[in-house]
Design goal:
This protein is α/β, with parallel strands linked by helices. Helices cover about 30% and strands about 30% of the residues. The chain is elongated and about 70 Å long.
């Protein structure tokens, strides 16, 4: 799908001329400006991406790179198996101001287009494009089948983190036999960090026994567009309950998508009819309301509610 490659900014250069191309780009850059990088990031665009989406992810990655200077390699596959071997390259660089007046940083992107017939040469070309002796991170974006990723064992096994987004990932993502499961991170889960922090902050005032005792059902309603994030939140809640000694088999869990006024609405229902917990979050209004009485008196709380930005989610998934 050459439209990925064509949609992204940059100057096309011969594949063998990437280093020379960057040398030319930076020829007029003052020597004191830093182009040192901290890490390598490979963004791999899958079949379910599009030209517009590719450009959007490029911009997200650029925002990330402005905070964490890195060498970014964007892989743009062409899935037409009838095409002859072909590798094309673009390079992109830009400088920006850091926290101080004299703190100017520069970032570099290498964009590689390849046909399936040239797949056998890709790993060696990628290795040449990366900065040596720096950690490698791999972001598999918008693939329609997890088995497609299996062809890229170099990236899966060498990377400190392998990133995917369950909001757009194939159904078998969670059952796929990842070579290094401990390195895999879900960006949808990462985006929910502020919500998990708020829920944890409110519930931390109660003991595990108070939260889990007589707990009958947990109902989570969510806006249809936040299905992946809702699934991540419920999984996090289940893990927390299990750590506190709750019997998950005795609790009924429901997740309901709807087109309602709330982005998320979470209710704990107790068999004794006395204890309550309710949380409602509206991301459009950056507003969340808590109501709880788990045996120590009624408590209410209002907090902000948001998801992490794409660049912040990338950083959280990669480094934490």
């Amino acid at each position: 799908m050459p439209e990925f490659f064509d949609a992204l900014p940059g100057q096309e250069v011969p594949v063998g001329g990437i280093a020379a191309g960057f040398k030319k780009i930076w020829a007029d850059t003052p020597a004191q400006e830093s182009r040192a990088v901290q890490l390598n990031l490979v963004l791999h665009l899958g079949r379910n991406s599009s030209a517009a989406d590719a450009l959007g992810q490029f911009q997200n990655t650029l925002s990330f790179a402005r905070r964490y200077p890195c060498r970014v390699v964007v892989l743009c596959p062409d899935y037409d198996g009838s095409l002859p071997p072909e590798l094309r390259a673009k390079i992109y660089g830009e400088c920006f101001f850091g926290k101080a007046k004299n703190d100017t940083r520069c970032v570099e992107f290498v964009i590689l287009h390849y046909t399936m017939a040239a797949r056998q040469h890709l790993e060696s070309q990628v290795s040449v494009c990366l900065s040596t002796d720096l950690p490698l991170y791999y972001w598999a974006h918008a693939f329609n089948e997890s088995r497609r990723i299996a062809d890229y064992s170099y990236l899966l096994t060498r990377s400190q983190r392998v990133l995917f987004d369950s909001a757009i990932a194939p159904p078998d993502t969670f059952t796929y036999p990842w070579p290094n499961l401990s390195a895999v991170r879900d960006l949808a889960y990462t985006r929910t960090l502020p919500l998990r922090q708020n829920l944890g902050q409110f519930l931390s005032r109660y003991t595990s026994a108070l939260i889990g005792e007589a707990l009958k059902t947990i109902a989570l309603r969510h806006d249809v567009k936040y299905a992946a994030e809702a699934g991540c939140l419920l999984g996090w809640i289940k893990k927390g309950l299990a750590r506190g000694g709750a019997d998950l088999a005795a609790i009924g869990f429901t997740v309901t998508p709807e087109n309602g006024p709330s982005s998320f609405e979470l209710t704990f229902d107790y068999a004794d009819g006395k204890k309550i917990f309710h949380w409602r979050a509206d991301l459009a209004q950056n507003h969340a309301e808590f109501t709880g009485d788990l045996g120590t008196g009624r408590t209410t709380l209002t907090l902000g509610a948001h998801l992490l930005t794409p660049e912040a989610a990338l950083a959280e998934a990669m480094f934490f």
